[in-house]
């Protein structure tokens, strides 16, 4: 069983350094830590993500913020399959728990961090040829964020995730190999079961835009979603 690094571990501090070499060294240390074959408990991953979240919190230059967001997302790629879903789950648990505390001056960098992670998740799944069990587990994690009625998930976070879901899939899936029915299923679930009428309506609009972009003309949105007032 791996012991989690202390939240003030040197590589966490180095991740927000203005020195590129220090940041690169920190990333290498963290990547090695995550891919060394040890097992991690949920608590250990949450502690690690809490440290990474506040690394992002304290990054104070736009370029450094963007690079850090991309760097944290890049940690997804080398993960073993056994760690992919636990890592993604810990990320979303951390984001949903802390989202309401993010002030307006810090919001943009965290929205970019979320976008980078959605992209990284799709890249990982594409690399695994959209393996059904892995994809199902990933979509379950995202569905919990979008559709959870109990808890502290901000509607602002849900709107952002809906906004970028199809956009980032298009960026990753240029060859059109992704199982669109399954991936858009999480948006359909929000359209049918979203917490508020406004959220359900917004999800339907996302589905409409997705259909319009489909070059093959396949109707991915049931007519019920177009005609139901919510």
TrEMBL record:
Keywords: Nucleus, rRNA processing. It is found in: Nucleus. The keyword Nucleus applies. It holds the Pfam family Nop52. One of its GO terms (biological process) is rRNA processing. GO terms for cellular component: nucleus; preribosome, small subunit precursor. InterPro entries: RRP1. Its main location: nucleus. Belongs to the RRP1 family. This is Uncharacterized protein. It comes from Gomphillus americanus. The lineage of its organism: Eukaryota, Fungi, Dikarya, Ascomycota, Pezizomycotina.
């Amino acid at each position: 069983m791996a012991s989690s690094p202390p939240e003030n571990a040197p590589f966490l501090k180095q991740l927000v350094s203005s020195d590129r070499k220090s940041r690169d060294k920190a990333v290498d240390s963290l990547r090695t830590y995550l891919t060394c074959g040890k097992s991690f408990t949920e608590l250990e991953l949450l502690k690690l993500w809490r440290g990474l979240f506040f690394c992002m919190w304290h990054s104070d230059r736009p370029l450094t913020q963007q690079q850090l967001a991309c760097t944290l997302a890049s940690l997804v790629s080398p993960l073993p399959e056994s760690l992919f879903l636990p890592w993604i789950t810990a990320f979303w648990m951390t984001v949903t728990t802390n989202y309401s505390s993010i002030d307006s001056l810090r919001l943009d960098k965290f929205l970019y961090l979320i976008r980078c992670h959605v992209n990284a998740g799709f890249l990982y799944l594409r690399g695994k040829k959209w393996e059904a069990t892995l994809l199902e587990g990933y979509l379950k994690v995202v569905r919990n964020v979008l559709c959870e009625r109990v808890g502290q998930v901000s509607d602002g976070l849900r709107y952002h995730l809906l906004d970028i879901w199809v956009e980032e899939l298009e960026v990753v899936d240029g060859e059109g190999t992704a199982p669109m029915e399954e991936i858009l299923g999480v948006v359909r679930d929000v359209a049918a079961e979203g917490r508020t009428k406004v959220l359900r309506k917004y999800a339907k609009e996302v589905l409409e835009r997705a259909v319009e972009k489909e070059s093959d003309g396949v109707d991915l949105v049931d007519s019920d979603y177009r005609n139901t007032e919510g």
